[in-house]
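Protocol check, entry for the methods section draft. Step 1: assemble the input record (protein sequence plus ligand SMILES). Step 2: submit for complex structure prediction. Step 3: store the structure tokens unaltered in the notebook. Ligand used here: fe (ii) ion. Step 1 record:
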Amino acid sequence: MTPMPTTDVEAFVPAAIQFNDVEDVIAFLDALGASPMIEPGLVELDHALQCAAELKALRPDDEELQVAGLVHDIAHGRCHIRDHDRVGAEALRPIFGDRVANLVALHVEAKRYLVVADDGYRARLSPVSIKTMELQGGAMNTAEIAAFEAKPNAQDACLLRMADEAAKLAGRDVPGLNAWIDTLRHVASSRS
Ligand SMILES: [Fe+2]
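Step 3, stored output:
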């Protein structure tokens, strides 16, 4: 499967996204090395690798969280930006299991939560991220905050989201995709 370029946050590409196995996901990630990101100066794979590296530093024993960081934006360019969290989660669920899928599904909600719950968070958002948040529903209201906090993976989704914001530095040197292949295969083979 060939990723689509994602240079327009409003882009809608009505293409299905489906993976047959973890090797298919690895090939897709590899192809993201040639896919420009919405954020300037980065390709999609740079962002994925930086996010995963951030999470490995924060939670070195949590491979599922690290893999969720690596694949959280995998549906960028395969659907409207406001749907990429859920579309990606459902494509990944059969491969990596419920926890990874649910973390991917929550990474946009976590942004909408953190802008209300964390005083310093909004300042970390890139201009692109602020624009996409409005397309994704904006800051959460009181009822949405309560519902989000009740979800089992809410706190880990917030960690993923913080890593997401920190993973947009052009030229940053982090381990490449080859460093993640064993972890991807391990999480896929032990999925819940
Ligand atoms: Fe992201």
